[in-house]
Amino acid sequence: MRIFYKYLFLLAGLCSVTAQAQMKLKIEELKNIENEPAAVHPVPHPRQLKWQETEFYAFFHYGMNTYTGLEWGNGDEDRSRFAPTAAPNVRQWLEVAKQAGMRGGIAVVKHHDGFCLWPTSTTDHNVTNSGNEYGRAVNVPRDFAKAAKELDMKYGFYISPWDRNSVHYGTDRYVKDVFLRQCAELAKYGTDQFEMWFDGANGGNGYYGGRNTTVNVDRETYYDVPNLRDTVHKVCPDCVLWGVGGEARWIGNEAGWAGQTNWSTENRDYAPEKNGMYGTENGWFWLPGESDAKATNMGWFYHEGESPLSSERLFQMYLETVGRNATLILNIPPNKAGVLPEASVNALVGMGQLVKERLTHDLAVSAKITASETRRAGATRSYDVAHLTDGDKATYWAPNDETLKNTLTLMWDEPKTIRYVELMEHIAKGQRVRSFSIETTIDGEQWSRVAANVETTTIGYKRIVPLNGSTAASYDEGCVAKGIRVHIHDSRACPLLSKIAVY
């Protein structure tokens, strides 16, 4: 009888263990009733995701250098030299940017010379001591924020951490009493800023209130970056701090191109000039790239005799930045009257027309799309190929967890003339794709690879592939195809695509 009870006890224990395991499994299933893929870390903060969605925006270098003809003022410029020949028209700047297809703009409000384009309480090196009534009435951050909101555009400010005018630069007092206070002042001009631009240049020779010396600092510790981020984010929760702020990286050049292989992940100790264009696949931080480039043939500030780059050249920059998982911040300098010159306006508007004409008529929406595998649907959502063309960035196509390779096929009833393929990953769950290729067919039977000379490696937020393989001459006669295939050859985890477009 004792043996019987012993076995009965053991059986009850086994049943209990089995029941617990089944219950645990049911709980795990309930946790993921939508069958969502797990994220691949690191992933973007929501503010970084909103920033990336801005894609293409303007840079407006305007200030003391506009009137001195310099690029980097020494900080000893007489304040009266800031003397606009008319009231600066910041609304015109943004109106032109919008016509060019840009979604926002960043205004320089303090460059390395330390001259502030608003009536700040932190220094007398500001517009209130300008040389005429136009200058003394200037308040760029106030007027820029107001115009951006009226035009439904994103906005932000460039403020140089390096100040070649301030006598306090290089001391603890500068960061606490000047720089952080200036950032706080700018934050109050609008809590919906999308980016604050902190130039990487920091330290060197300058006027420094008459010290006329050279000051070198370690920017990570000197600017108290963690406190800087907290100070701004408390007021502007969606504001990404570029450069010194450590939330978006310099793409590594000022020529308007990113690497064809371009990861949004990176390490803090990377060398921008060597690796900014490419990122690091296994980087510890989500640090997406921004490409700053000039739309004119001279400096960042306005110079007499300058000319704009052609609309075609600017379109090429767009393909090589926005089309390579970076954002493009394109500089257009206002002149001494505080407006964008007519030639620059025409070039930018022309560029916007090219983007609209070439990259908006999506042929994928009329194609029959199939995938070699599709993930099992969840309780209320699916991962079907229909999400590739539904225009909703929150939805996406996905295969099963273990599937790192897949093929998406698009077919039309009649042949189409095509030039570009656009792909977008659902990067809220991390960047995944390592390798892909594109093929086309005329008859639906024989397939040929296109853009074979292009590095079809990463996709990221957005990748635009010219099918002739050239960004410089991308809009040729195009290729005629009845179908197109995108082969994903390798991914860090199951690939998630939110969009496929064919133009």
List the SSEs and their pairings.
Layout: H1 2-31, H2 46-52, E1 56-60, H3 64-68, H4 90-99, E2 104-110, H5 133-136, H6 140-150, E3 154-159, H7 172-187, E4 195-198, E5 204-206, E6 213-215, H8 219-222, H9 225-235, E7 240-243, E8 249-250, E9 265-266, H10 272-275, E10 285-286, E11 289-294, H11 311-321, E12 326-331, H12 342-358, E13 368-371, E14 406-418, E15 420-425, E16 433-441, E17 447-450, E18 463-466, E19 479-491, E20 497-502
Parallel strand pairs: 1-2, 1-12, 2-3, 3-4, 4-7, 8-11, 11-12
Antiparallel strand pairs: 5-6, 9-10, 13-14, 14-19, 15-18, 15-20, 16-17, 16-19
Helix pairs in contact: 7-9, 11-12
What this model shows, in words?
With 503 residues, this protein is an alpha/beta fold. The chain folds into two domains: 46-358, TIM Barrel; 363-502, Galactose-binding domain-like (Jelly Rolls, Sandwich), CATH 2.60.120. Helices cover 26% and strands 22% of the residues. The protein contains twelve helices and 20 strands. Strands 7-4-3-2-1-12-11-8 form an eight-stranded parallel β-sheet, sandwiched between helices. A five-stranded antiparallel β-sheet has the order 13-14-19-16-17, with no helix packed on it. It is globular and about 75 Å long.
List the defining traits of the structure above.
single chain, about 500 residues, alpha/beta, TIM Barrel, Jelly Rolls, eight-stranded parallel β-sheet, five-stranded antiparallel β-sheet, about 20% strand, globular
Short characterization:
With 503 residues, the protein is of the alpha/beta class.
